[in-house]
Amino acid sequence: MSEEKKEKKASELLKEKLLMKKESGAKTLSVEEIAKADEFCKGYVAFLDQAKTEREAVSYSIQAAEKAGFCEYDSSKVYQPGDRVYVNNRGKALMLCVMGKNGVKNGVRLGIAHIDSPRLDLKPNPLYESNDLALFKTHYYGGIKKYQWPTVPLALHGVVVLKDGTVKNVYIGDDEDEPCFVVTDLLPHLAVEQMSKVMTKAFTGEDLNVLIGSRPFRMDEESESVKLNIMNLLYEKYGFTEADFMSADLTMVPAGKARDVGFDRSMIGAYGHDDKVCAYPALMAAFDTTVPEQTVITVLTDREEIGSDGATGMKSTYMADFIADLCESEGEALRHVMAKSTCLSADVNAAFDPNYASAFESNNSSYINNGAVITKYTGSGGKYSTSDATAEFMAKIRALLDEKEVLWQTGELGKVDGGGGGTIAKFVANLNADVVDLGVPVLSMHAPFEIVSKIDVYETYRALYEFYNA
After folding, report:
1. How far, in Å, are 161, 273, 441, 454 from residue 269 at the CA level?
2. Taking a C-beta distance cutoff of 8 angstroms, is the pair 250, 121 a contact?
3. Is this structure's pTM higher than 0.85?
4. CB neighbours of residue 171 within 10 Å
5. Domain 24-117+271-468: CATH class, spelled out
6. Which residues, 6 or more positions from 364, have their beta carbon under 8 angstroms from its beta carbon?
7. How far apart are CA 202 and CA 6, in angstroms?
8. How far apart are CA 98 and CA 438, in angstroms?
9. Partner residues linked to 468 by β-bridges
10. Strands (E), 67-205
11. What's the pLDDT at 77?
12. How far apart are CA 273 and CA 445, in angstroms?
């Protein structure tokens, strides 16, 4: 062998030893593994279509959990390894727990995802009439590009609670035989001034008014007769009056069902991937966990999109209170248990988009079809408002996923100083637990129609399952 060939061979061996492989994740999977991902995502699509709001996600998850052997938690009972319980927090957040062989003494394994998504919430007094049209006033929830929401078919979801406590469930606009609703836009012929504005000024929050009707109530000549007609229709169908809007959680979400995307059906397009695309894998991982070594707790939480404040958000004490109950039943102290606990904060990251490549740093981005993405830190600028996972915990997660042959990658949320965002990881870290973000890369995040890869959804489930059962 010539010296040149020897040097080349030595270089290749050293490269294999020292450098990361750059091969595409999907190319490393067998046909059988891809088929498993496609099959897993059939359940996810069904979940998406029935769980557009956090209330619906909790209701769906409880029904599924009870079928999987979970029962409502009773703090007066003593539970054994393998017992399965859930805690419902106000119908808007949920915890599922599988008791471990070692209880909580060595810490708990936490998988946490949020089930709220950006949307248009109705104001407390939403209904009004203007120029013979009936409309709803809205207050947008979470980070949205306002220009994306006009002319998109919308559905009305939520609850109205009467003064006597009666709950009226409202769900209209998603089925093809039902009416939908819409925020209108100005025709281009008259939009010269509008289109000269910067994106943040072209639409304001007060412009996001939803068109809901146009025909008057024909029995008399009352003023606001279109508004009266709409209110009469709502009363006939749901049994509430205009005053009852003041005690309601009603929201406008994009209408329609999740769809396969691409000739190869490799992706799923839908509203609400952030963060139900992590919530569903976490839910399934909990169902498939039988008798783990450490107690496993899956948390489906609310209000992440608006800072996690409130009784059902991660700034609330509800999760810590539940773990404290488990600690007391075993004679352990919460502070000691939390210090030994570990968490995968299951949240999405931004997938590299070649149409907007300048927003990303390619060496530190996550990519569609490359598996679950581990995000060591989020935040913005100089890592503000984030939890930064320790090198030691990162090493443990890396080793686990590699050992179990889970497809995974790492990524940041765009370029430094390009913006940024946060997750609930920091609130878990504040309880003195080791935590890192792990989830699915998403295209068009926070848009009315987001895109994810079926392979990435399945690999996120696998990562959570292996973490729970390590």
Report:
1. 33, 8, 13, 10
2. yes
3. yes
4. 17
5. alpha beta
6. 410, 411, 412
7. 64
8. 21
9. none
10. 71-72, 84-89, 93-98, 109-114, 119-130, 133-141, 154-161, 167-172, 182-183
11. 94
12. 8
C-beta separation of 445 from 274 below 8 A: yes
Domain locations in the chain? 24-117+271-468, 119-254
Two structure tokens written together for 285: 């991982």
Question: CA end-to-end span of the chain, whole Å?
Answer: 47
Position 182, amino acid? V
Residues 6+ apart with CB under 8 A from 136: 122, 123, 126, 127, 181, 209, 210, 212, 252
Alpha carbon distances (Å) from 185 to 141, 182, 193: 20, 9, 13
Tokens 């392979």 found at: 455
Task: Classify 45 in phi/psi space as left (phi over 0), alpha (psi -120 to 50) or beta.
Answer: alpha
- The CB density around residue 336, as the number of other CB atoms within 10 Å, is 14
Beta-carbon count within 10 A of 12 CB: 10
Angle at which helices 454-468 and 391-403 pack, to 10 degrees? Answer: 110
Specify the CATH architecture of the domain 119-254. Answer: Roll (2.30)
Residues 369/456, Cβ–Cβ less than 8 Å: yes
Token pair in block for residue 349: 């990251």
**Could you list the mean pLDDT of each consecutive 10-residue stretch along the chain, which spans 470 residues?**
67 82 80 97 98 98 98 96 98 98 98 98 97 97 97 98 97 95 96 93 95 87 84 96 98 97 98 97 98 98 97 98 97 98 97 96 95 94 92 97 96 91 94 98 98 98 98
Which phi and psi angles does 63 have, rounded to 5°?
A: -60, -45
Taking the C-alpha atoms of residue 62 and residue 340, their distance in angstroms, rounded to an integer, is 29
Specify the pairing of strand 84-89 against strand 259-261: unpaired
Q: What is the distance between the alpha carbons of residues 468 and 424, in angstroms, rounded to a whole number?
A: 19
Angle between helices 31-50 and 54-67 (to 10 degrees): 120
Q: Could you give the strand order of the β-sheet that contains 296-301, starting from the edge strand earlier in sequence?
A: 71-72, 84-89, 93-98, 296-301, 109-114, 342-345, 434-439, 372-375, 408-410
Token look-up 């010539």 returns 2
Nearest alpha-carbon partner for 113 in 322, 321, 273: 273
| Nearest CA-CA partner of 387 in 342, 427, 347 | 427
Distance CA 462, CA 372 (A): 9
